[in-house]
Design brief:
- The chain starts with a strand and ends with a helix.
- Helix 6 packs across helix 8 (about 180-200).
- Helix 1 (about 15-25) links the parallel strand 1 and strand 2 (about 30-35).
- The chain folds into 2 domains: about 5-120, 3-Layer(aba) Sandwich (Rossmann fold); about 130-260, Arc Repressor Mutant, subunit A (Orthogonal Bundle).
- The strands form 3 sheets. The chain has a 5-stranded parallel β-sheet with strand order 2-1-3-4-5, with helices on both faces. Strands 8-7-6-12 form a 4-stranded mixed β-sheet.
- It is of the alpha/beta class and about 260 residues long.
- The chain contains 10 helices and 12 strands.
């Protein structure tokens, strides 16, 4: 019988532990919960194989960051996910823990985000699909991802048709804000960029887009798309509908229509 992956959840709130378990039902893990005695997790990790510890940052008797350091000292392979209901400096903590940190799980728990963590723990590849032969959507394991702004979603759609090529700030503005004042356009671009990054991080897809200074680029090894498959003649499912609602999408739709008609 194959031994299940073991994960530990440390939180001083019983309702948070119950919520975690309900959200993660159906996942093939061996769970161990710590509520009243979080320090015991160090002793357990020192003597057992543990894949990951989901650790509340703010607990009455101990700081979760300090406890995570103690766990890492006794277990050289364990990964950490910090649980929190508060916003704080993720960059500083990420730098502090490096590749031992999988990320942050915010309360209330998001099933999509937790599923991304579970996929990393089990080394199962998350299915990320960029659907373009319809109104544009991003799917993670068949669940659609919600965006905080329409323009951040449209920015990802534009990156999809750029097909792994570099999208400059100037090119993005020309497509998404063609008639705006230049200074306003730059502010709108920065806002969409920040919101897109936040959505991807929340879905566990931090590395799917490279966010550079004045440019963006989608990393195609993190996802697949009906548009990319069509360009490579892998699918014949193009139905004449291509991201309706995006005016700039028409210039990419036209050559697809010609291809289907056998003209080119």
């Amino acid at each position: 019988m194959t031994e299940k992956n073991k994960i530990i959840i440390v939180d001083d709130e019983p309702q948070a532990l119950a919520s975690f378990l309900l959200t993660s039902l159906g996942k093939d893990f061996d769970y161990r919960f710590y509520c009243d005695s979080p320090n015991d997790v160090v002793d357990y990790c020192a003597t057992h194989t543990v894949e990951a510890v989901f650790m509340d940052i703010r607990m009455p008797n101990i700081n979760g960051v300090d406890l995570a350091h103690k766990v890492i000292e006794v277990n050289k392979t364990v990964k950490i996910v910090f649980i929190t209901a508060f916003t704080f400096d993720e960059k500083m903590i990420s730098y502090e823990f490096g590749d031992r940190l999988l990320g942050f799980a915010y309360k209330p728990f998001d099933p999509v985000k937790l599923n991304a963590f579970f996929a990393q723990i089990t080394n199962r590849k998350t299915d990320v699909f960029l659907k373009t032969f319809a109104p544009f959507d991003l799917f993670v394991d068949d669940e659609v991802i919600d965006f905080t702004s329409a323009k951040s979603k449209e920015l990802l759609a534009l990156l999809t048709v750029y097909n792994g090529s570099t999208l400059t700030l100037e090119a993005a503005i020309a497509k998404l804000w063609p008639s705006h004042d230049p200074d306003l356009s730059k502010r709108l671009y920065r806002d969409a960029k920040i919101r897109l990054k936040a959505v991807l991080e929340e879905a566990g897809l931090s590395n799917m887009v490279s966010f550079g200074y004045g440019y963006l680029r989608i990393n195609k090894n993190w996802a697949h798309s009906d548009y990319w498959d069509f360009l490579e003649d892998k699918v014949k499912g193009y139905n004449g509908i291509f991201m309706p609602g995006y005016e700039w999408a028409k210039e990419y739709k036209y050559p697809m229509d010609l291809k289907v008609a056998g003209i080119r």
